[in-house]
Amino acid sequence: MWTDAPFRLKLDASQPKNTPHGMINEFALSAEQAQNFQYKGKSITGRGTQMFRLVCVGKQPNLDAVLREIEEKYHVGREHHHGQWLQPYVGKFRKNYPAWIGVPDPSWRGPNGQPCFPCVLPGGAKAFLVADKEFGREFFWLIPVLE
User: Fold this and answer.
1) pLDDT at 3 over 70
2) 89 within 8 A of 80, measured Cβ to Cβ
3) CB-count exposure of residue 133 (10 Å: 0-12, 13-18, 19+)
């Protein structure tokens, strides 16, 4: 899925792996690392279906700049990004990831309290990245299509 053509995702947030804390347990490198992560956002509950697209906003100095660019180009404000949607994306498209794919939702806090967001690395590994790093043109963002 390497165009900005919309596609539909289904999320069942009652499944443990689809909860913010379930994502911490799955994405962390170890159980010890998982204990040092926190979730500070608003969790999605229940089941839902939504349209999404992958977009690239070019090289950006940090996640705030990414969010500003997405809002300006696609009219999707930061309140619409929920990292839990990465899980059904991964389930639908499996390991077809020749690029970095992230959800611009800095609701997780890493071991030092720094804001983090969920992403899939090329090859399919899942991780949380810190929000204050630079993002290049190889990074794609999973954003909702607002109707």
Assistant:
1) no
2) no
3) exposed
